[in-house]
Design brief:
Blueprint (H helix, E strand, L loop, with lengths): L1 H139 L1
């Protein structure tokens, strides 16, 4: 009977030992799953952070791209206005030059007209002197 009692206690002790190992193993398993879950959670947050970082860089890049296009557009606009201004300036100079040319031709024409009148007047003067001289000549004879 004592041996049986001893054997039962031993059996009970072994079961207890087994149960404790099982309990320990389950806690270890639970701890490992928790650890794995925490790493997964950390990884997901890191992934989310990286995506956010990537998104922010993309957003920044797009704004920069938009700004550069706007800058390019403004320079083009400025260039076109300058081009338009230069053409207008050129046109005005051409207009001024044509008016000057017209004025010079008019001036030249007036001088020519004046010269012709002067020439005509001189011929008339010469003719009158000749006429006078001839009359004088005739009168003397």
């Amino acid at each position: 009977w004592l041996q049986m009692e001893e054997w039962l206690q031993m059996e009970e002790w072994l079961q207890m030992e087994e149960w404790l190992q099982m309990e320990e193993w389950l806690q270890m398993e639970e701890w490992l799953q928790m650890e794995e879950w925490l790493q997964m959670e950390e990884w997901l947050q890191m992934e989310e952070w990286l995506q956010m970082e990537e998104w922010l860089q993309m957003e920044e890049w797009l704004q920069m791209e938009e700004w550069l296009q706007m800058e390019e557009w403004l320079q083009m606009e400025e260039w076109l206005q300058m081009e338009e201004w230069l053409q207008m300036e050129e046109w005005l100079q051409m207009e001024e030059w044509l008016q000057m040319e017209e004025w010079l031709q008019m001036e030249e024409w007036l001088q020519m007209e004046e010269w012709l009148q002067m020439e005509e007047w001189l011929q008339m003067e010469e003719w009158l002197q000749m006429e006078e001289w001839l009359q004088m000549e005739e009168w003397l004879h």
